Amino acid sequence: MRAAVRSIRSIRSAFRHQRNSYSSAFVRRRSHLIERNSSSVYRLPDNAEIHRFFFPAIFISRPFSTDAAAKVNITVNRAGPLVEYERRIVAGELVDGDACQVDTLRELQRLYDALVESADACQLDRYAVPEKTVRNRWFWSRLMPQSSYSPVKGLYLYGGVGTGKTMLMDLFFDQLSSNWRKKRIHFHDFMLNVHSRLQRHKGVADPLEVVAGEISDEAILLCLDEFMVTDVADALILNRVFRHLFSNGVILVSTSNRAPENLYEGGLQRDLFLPFIDTLKERCVVHEIGSAVDYRKLTSAEQGFYFIGKDLSGLLKQKFELLIGEHVASPQVVEVVMGRTLQVALGANGCACFSFEELCDKPLGAADYFGLFKNFHTLALEGVPKFGLHNRTAAYRFVTLVDVMYENRSRLLCTAEGSPQELFENIVTVSEAQQMAPRTSSRSRRNDDSDLCVDNELGFAKDRTISRLTEMNSKEYLEQHAEERKLSQQLVNADAIQA
Length: 499
Known about the structure:
single chain; 6-stranded mixed sheet; 5-stranded parallel sheet; globular
């Protein structure tokens, strides 16, 4: 029985390592290029028949491009992300990589080789560092302050949405030795962890130094996904936290939609954040993924999880009951960080049901959403509105909600006033607002101009949210979610039998 449990767990682990492959540039081989017509949005006028929203359905299957293949066909070491990528291509598991991603893999391979060569100097091996040294590092650093920057610089990857940044970083992370002190975490989760640790160390002269010491003791190699700064509290402490982390020898690998110099652009007290940008550029190699392709939108459409129209509460309830099966939904309470709790309107069988107002109009944040999806794998969300100036704060929360759902590979069933693109059509950046044609008369002015929201951070984040909503309703994503739930249930059953 123990062997069976180990087998199930190994299968589940392998499955998780591959979970991002379909949304990257590497899509499964087909015999022909097939492209259906662009998606149609079936709207629901009053008292009309209900139709579903279909996302674009595109399958790619041309042979691996000559240029990209030429770049991969090079002499490399025996292990690492680029080597694993090449192995999968030769085995026919992956196809259709673009040159931009191959260039990024070469940077990741360079970093991998440098880490392997300098593993001892970087103190990566957790078993090679005496436990006493780890426990007393902070104590001795207070008596004899000193810096020990890593001999290896990190890597900051940035580029457009859906270009495969997360998948590439995960491919890199999965090739690293299991003995190394490493950690892969979403930026939202990382900052929540920092704030939680700060609460525990109130009263210390420099709590940020203590927090940085704890983090660096746990992980010398820190991989942060979706690096973004929108909160003034985060912006004010990032420079000090990472100054201590880098001083302790931490190596940062990060992905982001924004170049370092554009982080926290237009934010409050940004002058206090600017030193962090200089520190980031000093300790990391900055690399742009120049691909303009959003691979999340190359997934095939699924029907029945994203509905457009008003007054669809009955439909959502019906779909929710199908998901929970014979279980009875009831109000529940889940724990989040620092002793806080979140009230769940209805929950059963791993599925939670909320109205949009309950999750996004109330003062909730990433901590609440992470707590929610540690307990539930599916969210039924009713009444997502179109966003504008009147509900900008709710739009920010919705963006965070989708980010957390995507990080946890959760499933979304929702009703909305429009397609993902239409939800954000009144959210624009400053440059987009400047490019809009001026209205010469009140007669030509759009009725919704008064609700136009000019917000650089939100305008930048909307593309990521639209892309993720598209993928989350794809056939591949939903099939992967179903398979993960099946494996999780098998693991639970096996543990129960073993107990």
